[in-house]
Each structure stands twice: as C-alpha cells, then as structure tokens.
Write a structure and sequence with these properties.
Layout: H1 4-26, H2 29-54, H3 63-78, H4 85-107, H5 112-131, H6 134-137, H7 140-150, E1 154-155, H8 168-195, H9 197-207, H10 209-214, H11 219-245, E2 247-248, H12 255-268, H13 275-290, H14 297-311, H15 316-331
Helix pairs in contact: 1-8, 2-8, 2-11, 2-12, 2-13, 3-4, 3-11, 4-11, 8-11, 9-11, 12-13, 13-14
Length: 332
C-alpha cells in the first residue's frame, strides 16, 4: 500500500508535470528557452547534490561530465550518420558515466579538501584535451580541421526526436518537453534513491565515515557509486544543454562552470531535496536579469547573488522551511 509521504510526492510531481505541460501555451519562445535552461541546471544540480549534499564529498570538477556528454553526442553526429536525439543523449550519458566511473575510482579514496582538489585537477586535464585539440586529433584530419574551424567549439543542428523532423518553433517545444520529462524523471529517481537504504548509508558516511565503516558500510564503494550516479545525471544535463544551446564550447568543461554548479546547489540548500532545484532556478534567473546590463553585467550578477546569500544564509530551501515553521508556530 502506498504510504502518505509517497502519495504526497506523487501528487506534487503530478501537479508540477501539469504545470510544465502547460508552459508552451503560456510562454513566448524566449521565456520558454530560459525555463528550459533552468530545468537543465536543476538536473545538473540535483545530480551534483547526490555526491555533495548526500554523501558529503565536494567536487570541483563536475563540469567535465557536463561537457563531455555534450561533446560525445556532437562527435557522434559529426562522424556518423546519426541524427537522432535519443542516440545523441544515450552516447553522451554513456561517456559521462564511464568517465565518472574512472575518475571516481581514483578520487573517492581521498576525502575533504584533497577530494575537491583532485577532482579539480583531473577536470582541468580533461579540459586541456579539448582546448588544445588533442581529442579532435583522434578523428584524423577532418577532426583537426573541425577544431581549427571552431577553436574547439562545435555546432549542433536540430536533431530528430522519435524519428520526427521538426520545424524551428516546433523543435523548441519538443525539446522543452524532452527536458521537462528528463527533469521529472531525475527528481523522482533521486528522491527514491535518497529515501532508500543506499541514500541513508550515504548520509551516514557524510556525518561520520569512520563510524559508518565501523558498522559495516563499505565507505569507498558507496562513495564511488554516488560519484558515478552523480556523473550520470550531470552528463544528462550537459547533453540536453548542448542541444538547447546548439553550440558546445570548452568553457562548459572548465572548473569555473563546476563552481557555478556548486554555487547554485549551495544557494538553494544542500540538505533539502528541492534546494538544488530552487538554487538553479534563482541562479539562472539572476543571470538573465544581470544580462540586461551590457556594461557591468558580472558586477551586477555578483551583487544580486550576494543579496540572495545574505537574505538566505541557510540556503533558499532552508530559509523557506524556517519561514513555514515560524508561520505554523505563530498559528498554533
């Protein structure tokens, strides 16, 4: 029998699904694109928070999974006859997951600041392979010519979705629905994982890994599993973003973008499940507001972020939870 918390979550997910379904009828093309960007960032932040908020391991290199997934799909399109969004996403997610498995195997044996530094160092090594064209050379002369043409950047056309070819506006709507479905699936899957014995074990490791090992939890194996799971969902977000932006650049692999993912996650609140989603929504929205100032855009963006941080010192989700608690206490 379905318990009440699960039923409530399903009701909320259904309501969110209906709202997302209606957005193309309520929003113009550009706001719909911004909403798509928010949902993609939400997927990435939820994926990152599996490792950071749940398992307690801060990664400064998750941009490599975000960017590698997009590049993998782009290479598949450029050097094969594949024009399917489904195969593009599949190839990207497979590559990001395999990379996460390899990188995680090395990193999870370290902890705290050493873990963060190691992920940062390895991600910059991956970044250098793209920025200097080494990855492009693997595809021979055509790959090197492609690198020289775009300086490491790659353009993606509109791919087919479920075998159908869409006109520009129809494609934007179809891609939005794909992103919305991926967001809902990610949220539900990670919510179930968070409430499972595996999720509880990760939280035990976060609080005290020595005690967790003492009671029989295989600490490094669980950390590695969390790392791979995190890389999978961040890679999914990266592949979706590549097609949303229609252009993939090495900057999507850079540690500064990793920092943006961490900041958005922390901004929302790492100890609340929906915190990363709220952080991603606010982060993208503030960036969009700041973009209206051509001169001083980043100063404006930074100032807005500082205001939000001071307004919600425990994260947006933490601040909202405290507000709800205060209201309930006042009513009682």
């Amino acid at each position: 029998m379905t318990d009440h918390p699960t039923l409530r979550v399903l009701v909320v997910a259904g309501a969110v699904g209906v709202a997302l379904l209606a957005m193309p009828y309520l929003l113009a093309a550009y706001p719909l694109t911004i909403l798509s960007h928010m949902l993609v960032m939400s997927i990435a932040c939820l994926g990152l928070n599996v490792l950071y908020g749940t398992a307690g391991s801060l990664s400064l290199g998750h941009a490599m999974f975000f960017g590698v997934a997009a590049y993998a799909g782009a290479f598949l399109y450029r050097f094969s006859t594949v024009e399917s969004l489904e195969l593009y996403l599949l190839s990207g997610v497979i590559c990001s997951t395999l990379l996460a498995a390899a990188i995680g195997f090395v990193c999870v044996r370290t902890t705290r600041i050493f873990f963060a530094i190691l992920t940062l160092a390895l991600s910059m090594m991956v970044y250098s392979l793209f920025i200097n064209g080494a990855i492009f050379r693997l595809f021979g002369g055509l790959g090197w010519a492609l690198y020289l043409l775009g300086g490491g950047a790659m353009f993606l056309p509109r791919l087919t979705i479920l075998g159908a070819v869409f006109a520009p506006h129809a494609f934007a709507v179809a891609l939005y629905y794909t992103i919305a479905a991926a967001f809902l699936a990610t949220a539900l899957i990670l919510w179930r994982i968070g409430g499972s014995p595996f999720g509880q074990a990760l939280r035990a490791i976060r609080e005290n890994d020595t005690r967790a090992a003492f009671v029989g939890i295989p600490v490094w194996q669980y950390r590695w599993s969390a790392f791979v799971l995190s890389g999978f969902f961040v890679g999914l977000a990266g592949a979706l973003y590549g097609l949303l932006a229609r252009q993939i650049t090495p900057e999507q692999l850079h540690w500064l973008f990793s920092g943006q993912l961490v900041f958005a996650t922390v901004l929302g609140g790492t100890r609340h499940f929906l915190g990363p989603v709220l952080g991603a929504l606010v982060f993208v929205w503030l960036d969009e507001v700041a973009s209206r100032w051509v001169v001083g855009r980043y100063a404006t963006f930074g100032a807005l972020l500082i205001i939000v941080v001071f307004a919600f010192p425990r994260g947006i989700a933490g601040g909202l939870a405290a507000l709800v608690g205060t209201v309930k206490k006042f009513r009682s």
